[in-house]
Amino acid sequence: MKAIIELVAIQEQPLSDAEQDISPEQRDAIEATERAKTERLSLERLGLKPGTVLTFTKDPTITCTVAGPKTVLFKGVEGSVSANLPEPAMHPTGRLMAKSENPFRWFDSSPAVIQLVVMLYVRYPLSLRNVEDLAFERGIDVCHETVRKWVNRLGPMFAAKIRKRRVHAMRQHTHWRWHLDEVYVRVQGEMRYLWRAVDHEGEVLESFVTKTRDKAAALKFMKKLMKRHGCAKAITTDGLRSYKAAMKELNVADRQEVGRWANNRAENSHQPFRRRERVMLRFRRMKTLQQFVSTHAAFHNHFNQERNLVSREIYRERRSAALAECKPSRPKPRRPCPHRANWRQVLVGLTAPS
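Structure (tokenized):
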């Protein structure tokens, strides 16, 4: 049995002078004709089982062993090499597509515009229509529903990048003190609880939304907090008994501190969220509340430069650095798709034993 197997071993070659003069439409037509001449066969369609040895028709010294439904092992004089045969990504039109890691590839607007709009909505207590008006003054014409879509879809991604950088930097230092507190949040007329943990400098470490504030909720919140940040030398809480029961189960009850004004750091951390909540006219779902508090906390930590503790020059430098970090990085250039003329697909003739 002889078969032509299309390997995903694709190498880029420069275009010749004759090919550069051809228009893209003519080039696509020529490639479509060439693709139609060769039928793509996979290992599964050929019925080759793992362990089957294939030999090259032109060079019998090189053998190819089927290691799996999508994996082959080439063995020759210079050694052996393993090749992966993934299924190619197909466009609805039938063309092969190259995978891209750019999250903005489906948006017509530039990444800088999208990130500016998301930052305006999350960082400042503005409504969707306020952001729409501010963007229009800067020459950006977007609808308030577009702002909502961008915030819901890309806001958590921006916040995750900020959180990842800050958590990595904070792990290199010892946590002195944590402040834990919970606050009521009304969702569709029902009371929910927002648990919040901040460090001794006011950095919001974790935000968690639950329906109750019993021992199980406190234990779940503290496990999530310790998994990401480790444990602090001292943990300040209010008089809620759920904290004591959860910390006793985690064997950190000796680090708990309770005082009348000792937890003001956590109480003050709720103020930016409360201002934002009033502008948003509260929340309708717990999922939306959890998503927004996580995004809002990451942006708040990033732009909180403690302006009351440093001079004006230092504050300007830190503010400029924070804005520079928030600017979208230039995405990697998307590699040409395999159906373009400057990509050559390597077709190998293999012969299987009869």
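The chain is about 40% helix and 20% strand. Residues 109-172 form one domain.
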